[in-house]
Amino acid sequence: MNDSNRRHDPDAEAWSLATRAIRVGHHPTPEREHGEPIFTTSSFTFESAAQAAARFAGDEPGNIYARFTNPTTRVFEERLAAMEGGEDCVATASGMAAILSTFMALCRAGDEVVVSRQVFGTTNVLFDKYLAKFGLVVRWVDLTDWAQWEAAVTDRTALLFIETPSNPLTEVADIRRLADLAHAHEAALVVDNCFCTPALQRPLELGADIVIHSATKFLDGQGRAIGGAVVGDAERVGKEVRGFLRTCGPTMAPFNAWIFAKGLETLNLRMEAHSRHAGEVAEWLVAHPKVARVHFPGLSDHPQADIIAAQQSGPGAIVSFVVEGGRKKAWQVIDRTEMLSITANLGDTKTTITHPASSTHGRLSPEARADAGIDEGLVRLSVGLESPRDIIADLARGLG
Ligand SMILES: *Cc1c(COP(=O)(O)O)cnc(C)c1O
Fold it and tell me: Is the pTM of the predicted complex or chain greater than 0.90?
């Protein structure tokens, strides 16, 4: 059979995102398997001592040891790199390992980094408790306050780090403007693209240098495994971040890589449905008499609606809202729901509901929480793929 028109290593740049998500990265073995196989092996063998030497010297590409590369992990990496528009991608054991690996690989003691205050809680701890211990100087700024960014970014700055939209208030930063600011000081912009995923926002196309993912969230989308990824250029990500991974070892397990590679295949469809369902829920909440405020990137009165229109192709799944009556009332709303999952996790087919002030932001002092805009009456949803009618019925029960 002539197989010459079947291309398993095609020019993915010609493909749209939906096709890349399904077709990139799978290079079948001589068994001609249709589905991506899982290589549960710690190491790989060589045909000869000479081949082993060539592999170790880097003169011949190929696998050596699964801390360095694994074919299943490589499927996920190639696929996500193609979707984000990056030259390379390095898979990591978790989203936190992706952030750690990036800063360990690209910064040295004495470097300054500028980080938005509105980042994932554990990211906060990583910078303040661990990276600072090794001499990294961390400057915290407000995500949406341009004057603070301009004042904090100097020629001593190595990296800028943001999450947009932020958790839980869905504040949004102008990625292109921050990338220009970074580049004017020969620094690089790192964007945690967890909330949007490449299906809704591609920071590299907007000028950012590196994209971080917690694959645990929407990339899997079904709450099955912990993983992360760093996407960017061949030098900083392909060489430096991968070098850190090879040496220090927070690599992704092949079984998890298989879950995430298969998750990517449906990412477009899921993000479109998450966005649509979240939009219905947000509109319903806006009209509810007991809801004082709704935060959602899809609302026309969002404070950064112009930036959202320019850089996001959809609002995503995260909706938060404030009920009058503070913590007592917020807890009552959560406890009265029957279907929604009470968990701080997000990015699942199942809708999740949480009280940020006593969970994700519980470590902060009451003053710091107030500064961060985390109201005691704030409830956060990650709207899932159940019928919006059933999600809304459960929220109606919660709001009483
Ligand atoms: C969950 C999360 C992380 C951390 O990812 P893990 O996979 O839990 O290590 C980082 N950033 C954001 C925005 C997240 O939601």
Answer: yes
